[in-house]
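Notes from hallway chat w/ T.B., transcribed later so I don't forget. T.B. wanted the structure written out for a chain they're using in a teaching module, and asked if we could keep both sequence and structure tokens in one place. Agreed to drop them here.
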Amino acid sequence: MKNDQNSKDKKGNIRPRVKIWLEVDGEVIFGSGRLALFQAIEDTGSIKQAAEKIGMSYRAAWGKIKATEERLGITLVERHAGGHKSGAELTPRGKELLNCYKRFRETVMNSVEHNFSDLF
């Protein structure tokens, strides 16, 4: 397809798209939705505010966090009830998962773009 003149003219319109998620035993543990949720928790310091920011109910957000924690067997989000430090924050393992996933996704997307350029 690379040498076809018609294809060259249309190349600017063609873009590869990839969805990436991580699973354990066929169950999702991390993907774009959880990336948005964890990043919003990191930004807002609150599960409730994070859920609102990304257009998700608190119940759905908490369910995704709990499911991921159970599937991995580690605590990813620490909740603080009341007092001077109320809210939520990512644990060191939660931050590590967030950052590793972002780097992994970037690496995959760079590879996809590179291979796309070579083939199209």
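Follow-up for T.B.: The longest strand covers residues 27-30. Might be a good example for the class.
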